[in-house]
Amino acid sequence: MRNYLADAKKNCKYLIKVKIYQPPHTFDDEVWETFIQCLTVAADENPKFEIHRFVVLSLKVLFLRISELSSRDYYTPLFNHFRPDPSNEGWVLHVVGKGKKERVVTVLIHISKMYWVDTVNRWT
Description:
The chain is an alpha+beta fold.
């Protein structure tokens, strides 16, 4: 016996499949704040954790993908990829992401002062 309803659903050009929006699984602000505090304490006690703090903050604040901060055969991210914005309103970060596409991420001055000044000062 054949199911004609299933065939109609499958082949009907007027039938629209609806996807239900599901919000992404993210940490709330309190969890992030605790996590950042723990990373900062660890970095204060041992400088090797400063790179962890920098990576986590970069991913969170700049909405980067992990692959954009990862070294690959054709691209290695460097600290000098942070450059002053031509308008002198902040910084920009040049990254290579999905599909080997370059993109420029804007880093506002107040964000860079909040998160990266300590990191840069410790590394230099």
